[in-house]
Amino acid sequence: MPHILIIDDERSIRNTLKEILEFEKFTVDLAEDGPEGLKKLTEGAYDVALCDIKMPKMDGIEVLQKALEAEVETPIVMISGHGNVETAVEAIKLGAYDFIEKPLDLNRTLVTLRNALERSTLEAETKTLRKKINLIKGFEIIGASEPISEIKNMIQKVAPSEARVLITGANGTGKELVARQLHALSNRNKAPFVEVNCAAIPSELIESELFGHEKGAFTSAIKQRKGKFEQADGGTLFLDEIGDMSASAQAKVLRALQENKISRVGGEKEIKVNVRILAATNKDLRKEIENGNFREDLYHRLSVILLQVPALNDRKDDIPLLADHFMNLICQEQGIQPKTIADGAYEALKEINWTGNIRELRNVIERLIILGGVTITRADVEAYANPGNVFR
């Protein structure tokens, strides 16, 4: 149900609006003045807010300005008396969604609220489409070698299903690209793709990051916050570097996978979630299980499908394609004319031991673009590809 906030110093208007909107199946919160309304706007998650302009302590214009400064995304509809129409128009210029004159007309109010809700939905869909376009443009899997062709074929087969996938491989091999392709080709591709790097988040914060928290759950929890499970509802949740997840978080993730329910940190309410889980790791989870660092039951929940992403050393036939791709991409990003790569340079790149995989290759191509000539030669590769070289 849409969640509406009403900010008005007149009790009769607050209560009347509350009764009407609740009858129309809205969830309604009330604030009797500007400071209370601003506090609720910045701490809560509302779909639309109705805010009176003329109020004691803090008027509606100031509430609007401070809410926008705090990057509140809730559409705010101003409520104005007959003498405040010019002020209301000014509020729209500042960023209000619309204004309604007093005395309030029920039909006008409901139409305005529904229009504001539709705009919020359209903005969310636009963000999703932009992400999808960026996904198609920026996350293509480059290569035609046998190992990478097998991965592409598996992605085509697995993506339309709801199966959980565990993606393994060394650092820099492109595990995230595989996860994004699985989402892009799935039936969930219009919903969010939400990524969590389990290795980058401190163990004491990982549960709040995944499941969210209630206001006051811990010292810095100044407002309620949705976790990644809720943010990914209807879409895909990608748990990167899951081998680094804490034991307590593993237990909660297992429960979420078993029951499709989560509880926010500091909360008792169970929240239903509908997410597809993709996970990735550069660790051998079998060994981690033997060493007591990873739950075996969680491993089996995650590994319905196992995808091993090949190292660059195992797909060196793809190096010319990858080198050309990075050449064009980097030159476009930096606004310079693409250079050409001589056949000898391709061969020299194939002779390198790529311990850093695709990520290392990209760095080398960028270095060659900066330091090499108009045509990248074998001599350029031999001079500049070794990151240990010190340039004076």
TrEMBL record:
Keyword Transcription regulation: yes
GO BP, sorted A to Z: phosphorelay signal transduction system; regulation of DNA-templated transcription
PROSITE patterns: RESPONSE_REGULATORY, SIGMA54_INTERACT_2, SIGMA54_INTERACT_4
A GO term for molecular function: ATP binding
A Pfam family matched in the record: Sigma54_activat
Residues covered by the Sigma-54 factor interaction domain: 141-370
Alphabetical UniProt keywords: ATP-binding, Nucleotide-binding, Phosphoprotein, Transcription, Transcription regulation, Two-component regulatory system
Keyword Transcription regulation among record annotations: yes
Residue(s) carrying 4-aspartylphosphate: D52
Top-level taxon of origin: Bacteria
Domain Response regulatory: 3-117
InterPro entries listed in its UniProt record: AAA+_ATPase (IPR003593), AAA_lid_NorR (IPR058031), CheY-like_superfamily (IPR011006), P-loop_NTPase (IPR027417), Sig_transdc_resp-reg_receiver (IPR001789), Sigma_54_int (IPR002078), Sigma_54_int_dom_ATP-bd_2 (IPR025943)
Full protein name: Sigma-54-dependent Fis family transcriptional regulator
Source organism of the structure: Cryomorpha ignava
